[in-house]
Amino acid sequence: MSSIDKMKSVLSKKGGVAPTNRFNVFFTPPGAITLLRSPNKENVVGGLLAQVGNAVSGNFDKRNLVPDPRDISILCETVSMPGRSLSTMDYQGAAQSVKVPYTYIDADVEMTFILTNDYYMRVMFDNWISSIFDTDLYRSGYKSDYAVDVVIQQLNQKNVPVYGVKLENAYPIDMAAINLSNSEESGVQKITVTFAYDRYVPEGALSSTGSAISAASGG
Question: Which domain covers residue 182, as residue numbers?
Fold first, then answer.
């Protein structure tokens, strides 16, 4: 059985434990997505009305017209680091049956974002999902037009990346409902979005930093 001193020695050698509240998420929605522009006409009108409302209330800021990856990262409250499982088939060997892997499955990634008074994240995902599937024309868009790379980083106590994953060709597939209630006067509104992607690529500190810069710039 490990002693406390041995555990402390291992933790010290490994730089301590990984904190759950230190992470970064970087992505830039497709270039056609702004808070005023969308393939869906109703969303364009809704975006315009939202910005008019912000102007009337004194909350209008032209910097909000284009999603800022830094704002997105700050507003991300929770994110799941994706898992991977191997699909196997049973193979009858000479002595016993053994499992043989034949493919892999990467789990979808769920993110929760804090909603601000201009519904910044909700409007952005409304427009993004409309670019994926047009509900008026009942037509799907081209994946190259709506998929982007997403980078998730684990940070250490000094906010330096120690590990990261890049989700290749990611896009939202589910936007959860937002519950409104008179019984929660001081509650904070949040939105949960699930992303699908082609595959994830594990990255080290240096490579993840490079990927984060590329994802934040829309590259």
Answer: 17-81+104-145+172-196
Tokens representing 88 are: 């196997």
Angstrom CA distances, 52 to 40, 124, 164, stand at 19, 16, 39
Taking the C-alpha atoms of residue 192 and residue 170, their distance in angstroms, rounded to an integer, is 16
Beta bridge partners of 193: 111, 175
DSSP-derived 3-state class of residue 188: coil
Token pair belonging to 159: 């906010």
In a domain, 92, yes or no: no
Q: What is the pLDDT of residue 87?
A: 96
Q: Tell me the pTM.
A: 0.80
Asked if the structure places residue 8 within a domain, the reply is no
User: Is residue 99 within 8 Å of 85, Cβ to Cβ?
Assistant: no
